[in-house]
Amino acid sequence: MSSLPLLLERPALLDRLAASAPWDLVVVGGGATGLGVALDAVARGFSVVLLEAEDFAKGTSSRATKLVHGGVRYLAQGNVGLVREALVERSTLLANAPHLAQRLPFVVPTYRRWEQPFYGVGLKLYDALAGARGLGPTEWLSARRTAELLPTVAREGLAGGVRYWDGQFDDARLALALARTAAARGALVLNHMPVVGLRREAGRITGVVAEDAESGRRFELAARCVVNATGVWVDAVRDMDRDAGAPSRAPMVAPSQGVHLVVDRAFLPGTHALMVPKTSDGRVLFAVPWLGKTILGTTDTPRDDLAREPAPFKAEVDFILGEAARYLARAPSRADVRSVWVGLRPLVKPASDDGPDGEGGDGAPHTKALSREHTVVVGRSGLVTVTGGKWTTYRAMAEDVLERAMARGLLPRRPAGATLRLPLLGAAAGRPLGEPPGEHGYGSEAAVLRALPGATHWLWRDAESGQGGLSEAMVRFAARHEMARTVEDVLARRCRLLFLDAREAARQAGPVAALLGEETGRGVDAGSFVELAARYASVP
Ligand SMILES: Cc1cc2nc3c(=O)[nH]c(=O)nc-3n(C[C@H](O)[C@H](O)[C@H](O)COP(=O)(O)OP(=O)(O)OC[C@H]3O[C@@H](n4cnc5c(N)ncnc54)[C@H](O)[C@@H]3O)c2cc1C
């Protein structure tokens, strides 16, 4: 790989797309799953193109609770295999992207005598499963120590607490790091490039048809293998894989939404996250320090549509604020919410309309009920569909996808493990992710950022800390090196201001549009972002 900063200019990328010979692999979808597959495949020496309809991580992958975790609640459900795999991946990710994924201490405050031993023993088991990959030992805490670590925890009846260790990350910037690392290794990755059709010959998938969202120009790509990694939207791509006039395929995804509220850091100062293992309706809830603010979430509400920007339900906001009020001395109100965002989980239903897969099965997902694990299905046509799972396990999922594609003969065999010790672009020890966003988020690329015009010109500064923020140079970096095309690309996913403070993000739309226009030589609209930010700022 070159040590020069990676320039990703769209006209040159489009020329490459137009000129391309058949690819080994076309990946459809630029979230955690698709980007993981693209990086793994290019690291094994395959020729790879990845096409994302909107922007990298525009879907679920920018809307996570930001935890790199084994999933304590899966342990409670007895799903040891899932937890063990996630714990291995947790440490792999922390090692490969230390600027974007770090360990984080969590405290479970306890109010009844039985809670401390009960949760403590469970979390000790969590430590035992992590083994040498553990991030720190689980400890029993006195009430006084619990209140020291969580200065704003509700004191009345506080009996003690349990501290355990897990990880946290910046999801959208990690997605960008995966995209850029894949590009640096030779993959062609493009955002704002939806796949609008599949190429089929004699019932076999032979490539895709994509359309540049900016110009409407169409591209026909030939490929040995096509992977559908479009998250909750996989069924729309699966449905492209049928003969004219044939009935639609039965959907395999049942979406469920999760809401997060963001409030000021003052509601949970300090360096520890708060974990509620059992809410009033039996779920897990987190309050997590993140980029200078506090994230509260999440919910799990089935829905029957697949909106790109799903809206929160009033009952979900009531639930989160109600639970926060039980555990925080000063309860946040609706007026305190700086941003509210919603992600869709693809829960997988058993399917039966796909043909034999490479492992001799019937192609149905290996699940009996709605599954939180990932599912890979290889259809009769050879279309490989992957969905479900979690961010933390994206790398293991990618290995699974490639194994299934190779087993089916869609790709020649090449050994797994290429991404196990593959540092992502910018990898360098970083400042805690609890601090406001700033240059440190760029890791070893911070020097490139500092050399750009406007490195000390701040468009926005974090008001609570007076540190970090968004500089003019960060917008230029986003345009030159991170494929940002729209104001939303910058303010939602390169800098996370939309998720941290939607009203402040709206105020930055104009200056960001002007800078992006200067960098890309085209008119950039600010109005649509202002409308979007108004939705993130409005709390039902
Ligand atoms: C509320 C919530 C909280 C979560 N918290 C955590 C957490 O803390 N830790 C964790 O490990 N996991 C977490 N997860 C799970 C994790 O976020 C998801 O498993 C992961 O982001 C899914 O990634 P994906 O790539 O499969 O889907 P997505 O991120 O949705 O990506 C799919 C992409 O495909 C694109 N696309 C769709 N159609 C097309 C097309 N025709 N052509 C091209 N592109 C297309 C979309 O634009 C989208 O970008 C959470 C999930 C939710 C819902």
Commentary on this structure:
By secondary structure, this protein is of the alpha+beta class. The protein is 32% helix and 22% strand. The protein is built from 17 helices and 20 strands. Strand 9 (204-211) and strand 10 (218-228) form a beta hairpin. It is globular, with a radius of gyration of 23 Å. The N and C termini lie far apart (48 Å). The model is unreliable at 353-369 (pLDDT under 50). The structure holds flavin-adenine dinucleotide. Flavin-adenine dinucleotide (FAD) binds at residues 28-34, 51-54, 58-61, 63-67, 194-195, 229-231, 233, 237, 258, 298, 343-345, 387, 389-392.
Query: What sort of overall outline do the alpha carbons produce when their principal axes are compared?
Result: globular
User: Quick one: how many beta strands?
Assistant: 20
Poorly predicted spans: 353-369
Major sheet description: 10 strands, mixed
Mean pLDDT: 93
Estimated structural class: alpha+beta
